[in-house]
Please model this.
Amino acid sequence: APFSNAARVGNLLFISGQIGVIPGTRDFPEGGFDAQAHQVMTNVKNTVEEFGSSMDRVVKCLVMIDDMERWGDFNSIYVQYFPGPKPARSAFGADGLALGALFEVECIAVMPE
Model:
């Protein structure tokens, strides 16, 4: 794909939009909504950690969700990845996400000093 998973600018890490595919594939996990929600958040976590930061250093997220009727269901999974203070967040309903994904999540994290 013509983009990086993340880009560092100063002490900020900008994580590209992640979808709920199994890493290294274009396949979604079996299990529908919940499985894809966990996978997208795991992909965010893996990217943040791969670049040397952590989920407790995420300060902003943007969530795109295919079905806003399931917003509460997604939130119940999202909060599991941010057990402490939550990042600032924006969200909107989106139709036509990459590969037919149910979610796309992008975040900004602060890098450790």
User: Anything to note?
Assistant: The helical segments are 32-50, 71-78.
